[in-house]
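Just curious. Protein, please.
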Amino acid sequence: MSYPVPENEAKRIAALKHYQILDSAPEAAYDDIVAIAAYITGSPIAAVSLIDVDRQWFKAKVGLAKPATPREQAFCAHTILQTEVMEVEDAAADTRFSNNPLVTGEPHIRFYAGAPLITPDGHALGSVCIIDQNPRKLSSEQKDALKKLARLVMNNLELRRVSAELAEAIANVKTLSGLLPICSWCKQVRDDQGYWHQVEAYLKNHTEATFTHGVCAKCAEKFHSGT
C-alpha cells in the first residue's frame, strides 16, 4: 500500500520537526479539542494527527488505542494534500481506502473527515480528524467547526514554537552584572584573572554583542578641525 507525498515534503517535515511536538506528552488543550470535535460531529473517534516521515502520530485522541499508525494506512496522509476538509463518506466504497487495514479491521473505519493543520508558511502537518464506523456525511456547519478547531490547534503549535524559541534565546543571553573594573585613562577593562582588555574584546567575550565601528559627530568635528 502506498500513500501520496506532497511536493514540498522535505520542507514540510522540517517544519513539523521545528515545532518539537512529536512524541510529546499529552496536553489538556489538545485533548479538549478532540473531545469537542467528537461532540460536535457526533463521532466515536477523533484525533489530532501529525504525519511524520513514515508514521501518523496522534498528539491527542479519543476512541483510539494506538498512539500511531503506519503512514501508508493514514487517511490524514491524503488530507495534507488539501487546504479544505477532506471527507470520505464510505471508505469501503472508496478505492483509495477499501483495502486499508483500518477499514477491513479495527477500528473499522467507514466514515472519515479531516481538516488540515496548515502552518503560516503553507505546510500541512496533519489534521484534526473524526472517524465513524457508519457511512455518513457532515453538515456544512460541522465542516466549518472542524476547520476552526484545526486553526486552534495551529495557534497552539505556533505558541509552542515561539515559546521554545524565546526560551532558547533567553538561555543564550549573557549579561554583565556587578562592578566592572575599567581604567580611567585608557578605558581598558580588567577581567577576573587580572588581565586588561579593550572594551570591545571584553564585551565580545562576555556577551552576544558584535561591534561595528564608526565616528561620532564630536570626534569627526575634532578630526576635521585638527584639534
User: Anything to note?
Assistant: The chain has seven helices and eight strands. The helical segments are 9-18, 28-41, 76-79, 101-104, 140-172, 199-206, 217-225. The first helix runs from residue 9 to 18.
